[in-house]
Amino acid sequence: MTTLVIYKVSLDTPIWSEPIMVWVNTCWSPFIWSNSLKSGCYAIAFYTMAMSTLIITLIIYCLLRGESTQLYSPLFETSLDDGSMISWGLMYIFFLLLFIASAGLMWRALRVCVRGFLLPWLTLMVIVITFQLLWGIWQLYGYYIYLIQTYYCLVNWLWMGYHVYLFIVVFSQYQVFEIEQNPNIELLIN
């Protein structure tokens, strides 16, 4: 992992003081290549909006009596007859709409350099990563006798690992904003 080292400079401290480390300073993933965190975060915001839109489309298809019997489907083992598919589907759609809104806030944060606008996306991404981890464990535990299920679980966990990397990139941008906005106040006492 490469790190960006930024030094705090104050009038009463030497020029080479304690370095402040950022986790990564570029965004190099299988789908997003960028030399700067900021442009990488713009791409991550677009990725979030696009993937959320695709998953919302899949959920609406399932809610309109489309096929949801595949083991990798987010609405697997839900039923339209008892209403569980509708309640889970609407909850997923609501969450994904929040995720799209948080990506819009991230876009705004990058334009105006406000780190607080990155927090909703970071929080929702932690929920997504946790869900993907638990979903994979549930799939392995419940359907370990099907070999293809192990493959689905591994693909899901690879996607989760990609989301962890995206989280690290956005959190590094958060750290850069924190360093840039950190006040360097000197008290002058007579």
TrEMBL record:
GO cellular component, one term: plasma membrane
Domain of life: Eukaryota
UniProt entry keywords in alphabetical sequence: Membrane, Transmembrane, Transmembrane helix
Coiled coil: none
GO annotation terms (biological process): establishment of glial blood-brain barrier; regulation of tube length, open tracheal system; septate junction assembly
Annotated TM spans: 20-37, 44-66, 86-106, 118-138, 144-171
Protein name in UniProt: CLUMA_CG012614, isoform A
Native source species: Clunio marinus
